[in-house]
Amino acid sequence: MALTQAFVIGNILTAFRDVVTMPLIAFILLAIFFLGLIYQLFSERVSIIGMLSILSIIVYYAGHLLIGEYNGIVLALFIIGTLFIVVGLFMTGSFLALIGSIIIIVSMVLVSGSALLFSFYILVIIFLAIIEWVIFVKKKKSKLPFLNRLILRDATDAESGYTSFDDRSYLLGETAKTVTPLRPSGTIRYGDERIDAVAEGGYITGDVEVKVIHVEGTRVVVRPLEE
């Protein structure tokens, strides 16, 4: 009984390997992975296409690894490439992620057993992926919401509603009064607030009305109001 089950399982695995390693099927699996991955990056949430993308690459590697050639090297390259991508996206930037992508592509070609044919396949798929990327970016004006949410890259600039704790931009164009002489730095009063400021011309006496003409972070530049 056990021998029969082992025989059946062996036949299933052999059939699975033979189907997955067919050049056309392998090309389709790789295309689903790359094109689906780009689609997922432009999606708000995890999508069915994104899950199919991951499933396709698992099936691709599983089928080709059953051949038994370069298994250790291929797995090592895939793991290293994945780590490079993760570290590159979350910590150091896109260059390391690019290196990781190249390493994974090398592992895909190596595990195929037909470097020339699969290199051509990869080039065709990359060309299609570039077209897909351009369509999303140029035509739909899309960003990368899924990736931004994943690695918390929401903008923290003023246009996004964020301001620095010491931002003094609200003072620009306002009128205040010098509390101390500005030689060229000193203190001005705006309402009930005492603010460090710098005189535009180098010196302003105390108790003089001034206008804020420039603000850069916490640096406030003023000139006498009568000028």
From TrEMBL:
GO terms for cellular component: plasma membrane. Residues 171-224 form the NfeD-like C-terminal domain. The lineage of its organism: Bacteria, Bacillati, Bacillota, Bacilli, Bacillales. This is NfeD family protein. GO terms for biological process: proteolysis. InterPro entries: Membrane_assoc_protease, NA-bd_OB-fold, NfeD-like_C, NfeD_membrane. Gene3D superfamilies: Nucleic acid-binding proteins (2.40.50.140). Its main location: membrane. It is found in: Membrane. The chain crosses the membrane at residues 20-39, 46-67, 73-90, 118-137. It holds the Pfam family NfeD_membrane. The keyword Membrane applies. It is a multi-pass membrane protein. Signal peptide: none annotated. Keywords: Hydrolase, Membrane, Protease, Transmembrane, Transmembrane helix. Residues 25-137 form the NfeD integral membrane domain. One of its GO terms (molecular function) is peptidase activity. PANTHER family: INNER MEMBRANE PROTEIN YBBJ (PTHR33507:SF3).
